[in-house]
Amino acid sequence: EQQSISVSKAGIIATLRARCAVIAAANPIRGRYDASLTFIENVDLTDPILSRFDVLAVVRDKVDIINDEKLAHFVVGSHIKYHPSNETELKEEEEENKDKKEDINSINLSQEMLKKYI
What is the pTM of this model? Predict the structure, then answer.
């Protein structure tokens, strides 16, 4: 809008140029997005707040019990596997895997390698 922001702290008043993008997320008020309601009715945000955004997009999660359960097991398993308390077990497992021939279609990345990649 104005591309500047005024800051007043500790008796210092400053106007700073602001160039940024804002990405925000809102959860539906009843926990699930209801396609029969409008966007505004689903998120219950006022027009003044919504008018500050140039683009509004709805990202819906389709309920799939099997895939949701697989994803939950993967996330929890990753947290357990790469927890600092399991560091020695992880190193032993990596050593064992170095000696084995790997399947061409599988990619096994350690947490450290993934952090370096990202």
Answer: 0.42
